[in-house]
Amino acid sequence: MKILLIGKTGQVGGELKNLAGDLGTLIAVDRKQLDLSKPDSIEPAILSIQPGIIINAAAYTGVDKAEEEPDLAMAVNGTGPGLLAKAAKKVGAGLIHYSTDYVFDGCSDTPYKEDDRTNPLSVYGKSKLAGEKALAEAGIPFLILRTSWVYSLRGKNFLLSIQRLAKEKDSLRIVDDQIGAPTWARSIAMGTHKILGQCLNQNWPETKDASLSGIFHLTCQGKTSWHGFAKEIINLSGTGQNTVLHPIPTSEYPTPATRPLNSLLSNEKIKKVFSFEMPQWEDALKDCMSSK
Ligand SMILES: NC(=O)c1ccc[n+]([C@@H]2O[C@H](COP(=O)([O-])OP(=O)(O)OC[C@H]3O[C@@H](n4cnc5c(N)ncnc54)[C@H](OP(=O)(O)O)[C@@H]3O)[C@@H](O)[C@H]2O)c1
Q1: Residue 248 — φ and ψ, nearest 5°?
Q2: Is 2 helix (H, G, I), strand (E, B) or coil?
């Protein structure tokens, strides 16, 4: 089985590049080889590679910047994945794609289930929802894995920002009323590996088993706030212990994009269909910080 991985330089893509090779012949590409913002580049790339599985880990992930660049965010997160899905149909490929907690408005008191009503508050969330809809309408076998608060030891993320800021500042003000599940990119890649492995064993994407297509929530377990996440990062770090962390409400930290207050995603469906559990967020953070 030929597996095409798009977005190999990203947090999740980088982890998948190291993990997915034992499931088939892995062809990992970057944006020079396939640019999701360039509609003309998508189908020719898919037709020339002829993959059986496409994993799209590429996205426009600048949540605040997307408010200034809505067209680019929509091209990469909405239109591009739709064209990818159409090209996948032409070559008979199944498509694995990632989405976000930011498709919800965060007003629920409980963790969001896959079929709960979406209502994105930001350009980024709207563009990711457009990508979800385009995939679902393409008439192909697809898996959309919604995740949240992704971090790793590469790229731009909250973990690396807090580690840097804690070395520079005596005190930090961190939002304490947005609740979510920090999720290590490697945990997402390992979860994807388990899911794809089981799918391939059941002859995906040819199988007609409808339970192997659709939206799934894939986040680490447990919950915390950004302030709680920062506290744990500092606890586990060798440096920055003297930095005082002040909890503040979202209203005291205005950002261009509005974020949901409740970002929690229920992982019950993935447990039921694929019989595995994601790690607790604290355990994954410890493993990440002691990893290479
Ligand atoms: N980060 C989070 O907190 C978060 C939360 C929830 C869901 N997600 C979702 O999880 C998935 C993976 O996110 P991530 O954090 O791993 O992303 P990331 O680290 O920001 O990486 C994004 C990847 O997309 C590539 N890319 C950007 N624009 C592209 C384009 N026009 N054409 C082709 N490739 C392009 C980037 O390439 P370059 O290296 O060349 O820029 C990079 O490889 C995404 O679908 C994201 O929406 C992320």
Answers
A1: -135, 155
A2: strand
Q: Which atom of ligand 1 is nearest to the CA of 185?
A: 16
The preferred substitution site among 135, 150, 160 for testing ligand 1, maximizing ligand atoms within 8 Å of CB, is 150
Question: What are the residue boundaries of the structural domains of the chain, listed by start?
Answer: 2-155+182-220+264-278
User: pTM score, two decimals?
Assistant: 0.97
CATH superfamily of 2-155+182-220+264-278: NAD(P)-binding Rossmann-like Domain (3.40.50.720)
pLDDT tens track, the chain, 292 positions: 999 999 999 999 999 999 999 999 999 999 999 999 999 999 999 999 999 999 999 999 999 999 999 999 999 999 999 999 999 999 999 999 999 999 999 999 999 999 999 999 999 999 999 999 999 999 999 999 999 999 999 999 999 999 999 999 999 999 999 999 999 999 999 999 999 999 999 999 998 888 999 999 999 999 999 999 999 999 998 777 889 999 999 999 999 999 999 999 999 999 999 999 999 999 999 999 999 7
Q: Ligand 1: distance of its center to the CA of 208 in Å?
A: 30
- 263 Cβ inside 6 Å of ligand 1: no
CA atoms of 118 and 141, how far apart (whole Å) = 22
Q: Is 124 a catalytic residue?
A: yes
- 42 φ, ψ (degrees, to nearest 5): -80, -60
CA–centroid distance, 281 to ligand 1, in Å, is 21
Pairing of strands 224-225, 179-180: antiparallel
Rounded CA separation 148/101 (Å): 6
* Ligand 1 close to Cβ of residue 229 (< 6 A): no
